[in-house]
Amino acid sequence: MELSTLWFLLIALLFIGYFVLEGFDFGVGMLLPVLGRGERERRVMINTIGPVWDGNEVWLITAGGAMFAAFPEWYASLFSGFYLPLLLILLALILRGVAFEYRGKRPDPTWKRRWDWCIVFGSAVPAVLWGVAFANIVRGVPLNADHDHIGGFFTLLNPYALLGGLTTLALFLTHGAVFIALKTAGDIRHRANRLAERLGIAAVVAAALFLGLTLARRATTAALILAVLAALCLVGALIANRLPSRTDPQGRREGWAFTGTAAAIALAVASLFADLYPFVLPSTVDPTTNSLTVANASSTPYTLKIMTWVALVFTPLVLLYQGWTYWVFRRRIGTQHIPDEAAQLPSPAAERGAAG
Question: pTM for the full model?
Answer without folding.
Answer: 0.91
